[in-house]
Amino acid sequence: MWLPKLRLALLLCVLVALGTTAAPAAAQTTTPGAQPAWRTAEQVRDGLFDAQQALILDGPRQAAAAADKAATAYSGRLRDGIARADATADRDVRSELALARRAARAGDAPALAAARGAIRAALLRGSAAVTLAAAGRGDAATTREWLLLREFRTATRFTRAGADATLAVEQLGAGKLSGKEAQKIVRKDLLDAFQGRLRELLADARRNADRGFRGPWAEAAAQAQGYWLALQARFREDRGAPAARSAGATFADLRAAAARGDKTGQAAADKRVAAALDGFTAAPFTPEESARRAQQLLRFLALIPVEYGRGTKDDRVTKDFEIQEAVAFQSGAVASFADLQDQLARRDRAATQRAKADLAILDAMIDKAATSTRGVARTSEVEAVEDRIDDTLRKIMPSEWKAKTDESDYDLIALTLDRMEAAVGAGQYAQAEQARLEAYAFFEFGPERRLKSFDQGLALTVEGLIWFGADDYDGLATLIAKRAPRREIRETRVHLDERLGDAAATLGDSANRATVVTNAAIIVFREGLEGVLILAAITASFVGVRRRQRRPVFIGAVLGLFVSVLTWILAQTLLHSLDQYGEKLEAIVGLVAIGVLLLITNWFFHRVYWSEWIGKFHRQRKKFEKLDNVGFFSAQVLGLGLLGLTSVYREGFETVLFLQSLQLSAGTAAVVEGAGLGLGLTMLVAVVTFALQRKLPYKKMLVVTGVMIGFVLVVMVGQTARTMQGTGWLPITPLDLDLPYWGGLWFGVYPTWETIGAQLFSAVFVIGSYYLAREVRVKRPVRRAVRRGDLKKDQAKLAESDPTIIAAPEPEPVSSAAPGAVEGATEPPKAGVTTP
After folding, report:
1. Pick from 293, 279, 319, 286: which is nearest to 158 by CA?
2. Parent domain of 304
3. Coiled coil: which residue ranges (predicted)?
4. H or E element in which residue 469 lies
């Protein structure tokens, strides 16, 4: 008997010593046993886990001791807080702890596992009650402490762990949110996490039942019932008390079937649970969240047949990696649909059920391809099912859900960059490059459109990190091309994520649109100035009695402007209908614009634009002047009007082409605003030119404009080549050059053989064709004329300096008294004619 007394005396001495040394610390807590609630909860859970482990390895006696330890640990702040906030949760914890102790002594592993699952759920329910009560009081410190004991929706490749509650508590502590506002946000976050985990627990119970794993099966079913208790108040609010009572009974049956090991009962109860929860959303989404989730659903669905098609050929699986990507997108689509199902069913329950059934068919197709290599569904079959689902969803979704949002694009960017990293880790650099290009496409035709209007430098940095480098980091394209290890690629990826976060924050704020407006204004003004100069040259000799002939030209010019606006509207309609083709469309528009620029540049550099194009207008003008002038709608008036229309519409059509690339990148509103500004400046120049009869050096101005457009051509070639690399139409062969990335933005210079080679080719083509034309049309005829004696050497030099002496098709003298005579508007004498 003396040994127990000795132990008791030693224990008392130790407690006295601890009490003496810990007195200062004890003064800082409310009770001697006070420790964070989450730490006490960990001790309870760890004790129960030790009991399960001991039951397997050591036997019932050791298991019972561990269970007793877990029951003892449930005390202090944890128990007091839960008891005050949610008496039902406290009662459930204590009753389940008693069941756990009995199960441990009896060696009943399934019952012990079920009790552990139920205790975990009850602790989380109680903690949620304490957290919400503290938030409602505006007590940020208590809310922060108890929020550490919570459940999270499992993070996936499509969703990240929710942080809304944490952010709300921080704002509550900083005085930026009221207690009620913070409570609402925290409640929504916790309910969403409970429902997300409930779905997973039900799936775990089904899976473990099929495998015959009694312990995990019972634990998942009991924990699912506990999570249901956390959601039942919200369910009652949404579906009514009778439905809530029925669902509660069904969850009780589910737990009982698992405890008995009754697979048939489990299947029946699970089916009733699924029916009860069908379409139920514990945390209703805000309109913005619903739209974002809808965009995710539509994008995931669209990507399923794409990845499936890459991984199969006919009815055989050829690339497992692509099939796994299809599985991932399918899982994301199922999760997104589950979140929106309740709202969709309210709009059209029958259509929602059809979409759900088709989604199950699609799921079966993808699952078979993931487990088999032959006899799988063909890509056309998968596409047909996906098309049906997409059509059904778009018919019942509200219009605001179908409008593209930046948030869904950021989600897809993160997803595809995850795929890229996984491919690099597996040594599959071709798949990594494909994923990188997809991530870039999501950025290019999503956030970047608006970001370029708000923060050109940030858009430049993000694009640089995806391609060839920025902020002293190598770009992902460069790293993948040189097969860099995953560690290096991860460094760039982390920095890219930070800059994408900056982009999201920037687009969430108001910002000026100066860059886009300015660019659009410059394009319109540049082309408008060219049109004004052409009209001025055409009407220069319409003076004196012929001045009235200017009117039909100007009327035709106004009609040309009107037709240009109609072309813009038509182009907008066409491009919006083709927007799904994304970067490929921009590449095509760029190629068309390059073709127009090549033609214009050749006109300028060969001086054909002035000597023949304007000459052609003069010849047409003379022809129209000879027509009879009978009435307002005479042939002469119609001819001169047509001349003005074609002169302006040609420039207007070019302007529409050039603005389309800008519109695809930045949106319509800013482009229209800039175009209006450019048009206003053009009108001002027109007034100065025509109303004030200012004599301008048209020929020299056109030559300068030609040089500028030649520069634009080289820039556009580089940018279009880079866009074609983005579509996969051109390969990517990086150059070992450290070029500043702003060179790509302003000059279209990117460090790849393909882009720089295309620019060099375009420059050589234009300049070379100029010298070739000069040789064929000027120097060769001059040499022949000298040999024939038609020209003297001094006249030959003059002819070489002024190619129009040879190239001009016919002269057209203009009276020296004409006040509107234009320099260069008249044709010089033909070769061999000496001028005084």
Report:
1. 293
2. 287-507
3. none
4. strand 469-470
CA 668 – CA 523 distance, rounded (Å): 15
374 backbone dihedrals φ, ψ, rounded to 5°: -135, 160
Closest C-alpha to 728, from 587, 576, 580:
587
Q: Are residues 628 and 684 in the same domain?
A: yes
Q: How many CA atoms lie within 13 A of 40 on its CB side?
A: 22
d(CA 311, CA 800): 64
Pick from 133, 130, 134, 135: nearest CA to 149: 130
Average pLDDT of the residues in 657-671: 64
468: nearest Cα among 742, 713, 711: 742
What is the separation of C-alpha 1 from the centre of its chain, rounded to a whole number of angstroms? Answer: 77
Give the whole-angstrom CA distance, residue 804 versus residue 786.
Answer: 17
Q: Are 151 and 190 in contact (CB under 8 A)?
A: yes
**Domain identity same for 268 and 128:** yes
Q: Is residue 497 part of a domain?
A: yes
Is residue 621's pLDDT more than 60? no
Q: What is the dihedral of CA 131, 136, 138, 139, to 10 degrees?
A: -30
User: What is the pLDDT, as a whole number, of residue 738?
Assistant: 65
Are 475 and 571 members of one domain? Answer: no
Same domain, 502 and 518: no
Same domain (yes/no): 587, 626:
yes
128-177 pLDDT, tens digit per residue, is 999 999 999 999 999 999 988 888 877 655 555 556 888 888 888 888 88
Alpha-carbon radius of gyration of the chain: 38
Whether residue 626 is found in the same domain as residue 521? yes
In this structure, are residues 129 and 82 in contact, taking their beta carbons and an 8 Å threshold? yes
Contact assessment for residue 276 and residue 365, using Cβ atoms and an 8 Å cutoff: no
Distance from C-alpha of 136 to C-alpha of 118, rounded to nearest angstrom: 27
Q: What residues does 470 pair with on adjacent strands?
A: 473
Q: Is residue 347 part of a domain?
A: yes
Residue closest to 231 by CA, chosen among 265, 197, 207? 197
In which residue are the tokens 């024939």 written? Answer: 788
- Tell me if residue 283 falls in helix, strand or coil: coil
- Write down which residue in 507, 525, 550 finishes a domain: 507
Residue where a domain terminates, one of 235, 255, 277: 277
Asked if 670 contacts 519 with a C-beta cutoff of 8 angstroms, the reply is no
Straight-line distance from the first to the last Cα atom of the chain, in angstroms, rounded to the nearest whole number? 142
Say if 335 falls within a structural domain. Answer: yes
Instruction: Find the helix or strand (DSSP H, E) in which 312 lies.
Output: strand 312-313
pLDDT score of 36: 86
The residue type found at 207 is: R
**Three-state DSSP state, 455:** coil
Q: How far apart, in Å, are the Cα atoms of 710 and each of 594, 600, 714, 778, 794?
A: 10, 8, 7, 22, 32
Give the C-alpha distances (Å, rounded to integers) separating 489 from 424, 471, 722: 8, 15, 21
Q: Which residue has the tokens 């974002």?
A: 292
Return the higher-pLDDT residue of 153 and 75: 75
**CA–CA separation, 53 and 47 (whole Å):** 10
Taking alpha carbons only, the member of 198, 189, 181 closest to residue 161 is: 189
Contact (Cβ atoms closer than 8 angstroms) between residue 248 and residue 232: yes
- Looking up tokens 């979140």 gives 339
Answer yes or no: are the C-beta atoms of 800 and 779 closer than 8 Å.
Answer: yes
Q: Is residue 10 part of a domain?
A: no
Retrieve residue 56's tokens.
């397997």
306 or 607, greater pLDDT: 306
CA distance 8 to 300: 67
Phi, psi dihedral angles at 627 (to 5 degrees): -70, 155
Share of the chain above pLDDT 70, in %: 68
If one counts the domains in the chain, the total is 3
Burial 201-213 (b: 16+ CB within 10 A, else e): bbebbbebbeeeb
- 294 shares a domain with 231: no
Quickly tell me which residue has 């260069």 as its tokens.
Answer: 824
The values of phi and psi at residue 8, to 5°, are -65, -40
